[in-house]
Amino acid sequence: xxxxxxLIEPVSQLGKRRTDTIKKDILxxxxxxxxxxxxxxx
Length: 42
Known about the structure:
mainly alpha; 16261_t:CDS:1
């Protein structure tokens, strides 16, 4: 039974890390887009 848990844990950690990375990427794109639009509106 413990073997199954050992397998599940790293997978969930990996998924969490990937989600964090995707969130960061989205935030970066959002910031860049905001900067670009700021130039447009001026």
